[in-house]
Amino acid sequence: MAKELKGRAIHLKSRPQGEPTAANFELVETAVPEPAEGQILVCNLFMSVDPYMRGRMNDVKSYVPPFQVGQPLDGGVVGQVVHSKALGYEEGDFVTGMGGWREYHVAPANQYMKVDPGVGSLSAYLGVLGMPGMTAYVGLLDLGKPQAGETVFVSGAAGAVGGLVGQIAKLKGCRVVGSAGSAEKVKHLREELGFDDAFNYKDGPVAQTLERTCPGGIDVYFDNVGGEHLEASIGKMNNYGRIVLCGAISQYNATAPAPGPRNLMLAVGRRLTLQGFIISDERHMERRPDFLRDVGGWLREKKVKEVETVVEGLDKAPEAFIGLLRGHNTGKMVVKLASPV
Amino acid sequence: MAKELKGRAIHLKSRPQGEPTAANFELVETAVPEPAEGQILVCNLFMSVDPYMRGRMNDVKSYVPPFQVGQPLDGGVVGQVVHSKALGYEEGDFVTGMGGWREYHVAPANQYMKVDPGVGSLSAYLGVLGMPGMTAYVGLLDLGKPQAGETVFVSGAAGAVGGLVGQIAKLKGCRVVGSAGSAEKVKHLREELGFDDAFNYKDGPVAQTLERTCPGGIDVYFDNVGGEHLEASIGKMNNYGRIVLCGAISQYNATAPAPGPRNLMLAVGRRLTLQGFIISDERHMERRPDFLRDVGGWLREKKVKEVETVVEGLDKAPEAFIGLLRGHNTGKMVVKLASPV
Fold first, then answer.
1. Which ranges of A29-149 does DSSP label H, i.e. alpha helix?
2. List of residues 6+ apart from B282 with CB closer than 8 A
3. Is A265 at the interface with chain B, CB within 8 A?
4. Calpha distance A84→A63 (Å, rounded)
5. Is A62's Cβ below 8 Å from some Cβ in B?
6. Model confidence pLDDT, tens digit, residues A110-147
7. Where are the beta strands (DSSP E) in A33-150?
8. Contact B260 A263 (CB under 8 A)
9. Between the CA of residue A193 and those of A124, A197, A303, B44, B231, what are the distances in Å?
10. For A268, which of B246, B268, B272 is closest by C-beta distance?
11. Is residue B113 located within the same domain as residue B249?
12. B332: domain CATH number?
């Protein structure tokens, strides 16, 4: 560490209005400090781009503070320890934590978790074994509470969360239907992920398609997209149905409020529960060991598939993020920054 | 019972389009049969008109079957046994059950419950001690789960359900805010029912009024009206807030779907739960003893007030029902049909 280390990072240059463009991002090179006592220097191998980051680009108070203009963006990463001044962390260890959108990051070691490279791929810790996986696991099982024989419908089903929701629901004995935005994704859901049925929501009104694909109604709707999907699903929910409100990717770039579901009051007569959640909440952390045991086990037994779309190079991260919001990914969208040593 | 008994009943003459009118109802006199083995003949003393009945006037499948044109309407009553052929039921007993919108009713005794005339007034069994009371109790406590110090907002607060929701929430140590549709009702909520604050929703946008009346946000919103109230409340909910979807009286006469809440997706970041329920569900029946003990106790100790608007005479029942949907009642709207003997 004699020579000064330099590293590149993506800064938020300006706040997007509507859909983000390349002009909202800036690639900046800065000196990487040496780790202080208790800190580690991490070389980032894979960084995550996630839909929730769009919300942080607005200057709006939410469950995470907004990104600051002129500062690096942030997000999940898997990296390798280059230099450690923390007990229990060695050079070469694989870790996951925040500190993405840059090549190197220095932070207190206790902000990272060590990961076992033997369970799945390293990047799986950003996907099925990471935040999206935990979101699918807790959202479906703890909030959706699917019972064998029930029908589970998931939107954004070819995404990182949706794909695992569907696979877990199948393992729990449910009939699983998914929606996605292209014929290729629909094929992927049916042929690769084992969905019972799947459809391209661009082919026609979702409400009509649900009549055909969910003839017995929906017991659990896992909502990743909001908008038309949510209204159509409410209309097909069975009594005592559960709607897991996970995200609303159809609305993240919206510059004006989208219409709400006109049929929400069906929730009274049908005794529906709609529940929003944020996976990073303390209350969900106790489920992490169960999640790693179950999903890790399913991965090893090939009962669950890891699916990802990999973009190479930090300079391509803005493009990856913009593409994610346009649905260019199948499975988890990750950016590969470096190879492990 | 030698002479044939005749009784009048209100039939549904035609299905209302939009707001019901007197022309949708017909007063008919028919012979009252003698009770068979296991049955009782009940003289109805008070009958209930309730908002949910509007839904039953449409030819739509819901959690209760629709009323039939040319047939008597139905609903909750408190009556007195005139003639019993059922073990355990004596002439003069007070009972409550279905069989309203008529002067006399003959039915199996096990469809009635005997009521104790010493707890509150007889008509209270249609209000605070009846279905609306149970709705308030279960909806607020089991679904809303209010904690001392939290803010509870209830719409339709001067109605049969809303008024008790507010009073129970006060007893649980909450700050209670209510909305209603007239200055007199607002005064009633503040001065008679002990609400911390109350407002006339006709005075201005609900969202603006909630800024003023719920400066610390809302933890539990008990929704009786839907529409603008629901959207405004979602906008003021605190993290982990609960929205109890009890009814949507603002929409019962609607002939086209009303706009849904445009901000429903705030439910994700704020981790909101919205839950619809129907009090007549088997799953809520186990709470009936707790309800009668608690609310009965509070009534006797004068901690809860019985509030009702009484209309006299079966021929006035349609008018009472139409008035209910227009908000002409304070507290429970009941129709007095006869005096006890």
1. 52-56, 131-138
2. none
3. yes
4. 31
5. yes
6. 999 999 998 889 999 999 999 999 999 999 999 999 99
7. 39-48, 76-84, 94-98, 104-108, 113-114
8. yes
9. 16, 11, 10, 62, 38
10. B246
11. no
12. 3.90.180.10
ipTM, 2 dp: 0.93
Give B231→chain A minimum CA distance, Å.
Answer: 9
Residue-by-residue DSSP string for B133-202 = HHHHHHIIIIII---TT-EEEESSTTBHHHHHHHHHHHHTT-EEEEEESSHHHHHIIIIIS--SEEEEGG
Q: What is the spatial distance between Cα A122 and Cα A340, in angstroms, rounded to a whole number? A: 9
Phi, psi of A185 (to 5 degrees): -65, -40
**What secondary structure does DSSP assign to A197-260, as a single string?**
EEEEGGGS-HHHHHHHH-TT-EEEEEESS-HHHHHHHHHHEEEEEEEEE---GGGTT-SSPPPB
Write out the residue range of the structural domain in which residue A79 sits. Answer: 5-127+307-336
Q: Which amino acid is at A18?
A: G
Same domain, B58 and B156: no
Co-location of B148 and B68 in the same domain: no
pLDDT one-digit tens code per residue, A41-77 = 999 999 999 999 999 999 988 888 899 999 999 999 9
Same domain for A98 and A136: no
Subunit contact A231:B260, Cβ cutoff 8 A: yes
Tally of CA atoms within 13 A in the half-sphere of A38 that contains its CB: 3
The CATH number of the domain holding residue A194 is 3.40.50.720
- Bridge partner list, B31: B6
A231:B258 CB<8 A: no
Of B230, B246, B269, nearest to A63 by CB-CB distance is B269
Same domain for A139 and A90, yes or no, is: no
A3 has a pLDDT exceeding 80: no
Q: How far does the CA of residue B198 sit from the closest CA of chain A (Å)?
A: 24
Nearest to A276 among B246, B267, B276 (CB): B267
Q: In terms of domains, do A144 and A41 share one?
A: no
Q: Does A278 touch chain B (CB under 8 A)?
A: yes
Count of structural domains within chain B: 2
Residue with tokens 């429903």: B264
- Report helix, strand or coil for B56: helix
Strands B76-84 and B39-48: antiparallel
Task: Determine, yes or no, domain membership for B17.
Answer: yes
Asked if A138 is an interface residue toward chain B (Cβ–Cβ < 8 A), one would say no
| Contact flag A260-B231 (C-beta cutoff 8 Å) | yes
